[in-house]
Amino acid sequence: MTDTTQKTASYTVPGMDVADGAHVAEVLQDRLNALNDLHLTLKHVHWNVVGPNFISVHEMLDPQVEAVRGFADDVAERIATLGSSALGTPGTIVSQRKWDDYSIGRAPAIEHLGALDLVYTGVISDYRAAIEEVGKVDPVTEDLLIGHSGQLELFHWFVRAHLENAGGQLSTAGAGSEKEAARDAS
């Protein structure tokens, strides 16, 4: 039987103390959980989007899925580099996440995009908090997260472009849940 619990590091990268390395790895584990959840959510939307804009949204999401999967790999490898264990099991995602499961099933493209607006907002906000936290002790991890954040923000813009009117207002402004955002977008 394989042990899938988080191991306390007995070493880390040169120039950083073990406690700081373990703390950065904990911050990264939360990002790993979010990235694994995000790429599964994006694929779920890819499979369940319907309506007149089906093909454009369906095809827009696959490159996002692949990029986010790559980000997860980057983060997991950084956790290992820091001397900790990267946990990538479904049970880890479910038990450690601080957000609810994606709540929209088969639905029109615009509804999924409305819900994804909130998903990306949460992921990006948490990324920015992680950047601030790890930057105090680990500029290498900070740089990694900044690079990911730029791409996540670009993907968020792709989603929001469908939700914005000519005056620059988002149809999802003020929505407090994915279902509200989906409703407001439609």
Automatic annotation (TrEMBL):
Top-rank lineage group of the source organism: Bacteria
For the keyword DNA-binding, the answer is yes
Per UniProt, the keywords (alphabetical) are: DNA-binding
Q: What InterPro entries does this protein map onto?
A: DPS_DNA-bd, DPS_DNA-bd_CS, Ferritin-like, Ferritin-like_SF, Ferritin_DPS_dom
- What CDD domains does this protein's entry cite? DPS
Q: Which residues form the Ferritin/DPS domain?
A: 27-165
Q: Name one GO molecular function term.
A: DNA binding
Any Pfam family matching the protein: Ferritin
User: DNA-binding: present as a keyword of the record?
Assistant: yes
Family classification: Belongs to the Dps family.
Its recorded name reads Starvation-inducible DNA-binding protein
Which species?
A: Rhodococcoides corynebacterioides
